[in-house]
Amino acid sequence: MTLPIVSHRALSVWRRNRDVFRSVWRGELPFTVVEPLFILAVMGFGLGGYVALGGTRYLEFIAPGVLASYAMWAAGGECSWGTYVRMNEQKTFDAIIATPVSIEDVIAGEVLWGTTRSIMSCLVVLSATLLFGVGLSPWAVLVPAAVLL
Q1: Alpha-carbon distance values, 63 to 11, 38, 57, 84 (Å)
Q2: CA triplet 6, 9, 14: central angle to 5 degrees?
Q3: Residue ranges per structural domain of the chain
Q4: Which residue of 11, 12, 13, 129 has the fewest C-beta atoms within 10 A of its own C-beta?
Q5: Cα–Cα distances in angstroms (integers) from residue 111 to residues 71, 96, 149, in the given order
Q6: What is the tens place of the pLDDT at every residue in 85-125?
Q7: Which helix (DSSP H) or strand (DSSP E) does residue 113 occupy?
Q8: E-assigned strands of 88-132?
């Protein structure tokens, strides 16, 4: 089995998605920033007032799970629904493939963009946990690298 040949043109697909995100980020702000903040606040402080975990605050307990789930949903949503819309509804891939960009480059660019969105979501939730005073380990700086994998 041979691996597909992916060229530097995959970065052009990534750049195209980045440029679109730059123009529509305000519409995605509630899902990217406000929702994780809301979940952490409501679950951590609201429900957390009723849950005893033997010395660990409930917010500290749920923060890693919220971080992982939002990173997963960001990549999953972008690489499933976002790709479907670009492929079937907008016919963006048809237009891209009419250029010297190959289908392998388009796929690689989409995966790179999904990874980028996942890391962005991870950084937002990580920042929110710091904002709420969750005592994170110094190892938390490696969380974006783990999300990358």
Answers
A1: 33, 12, 10, 31
A2: 105
A3: 29-148
A4: 11
A5: 14, 16, 12
A6: 999 999 999 999 999 999 999 999 999 999 999 999 999 99
A7: helix 103-131
A8: none
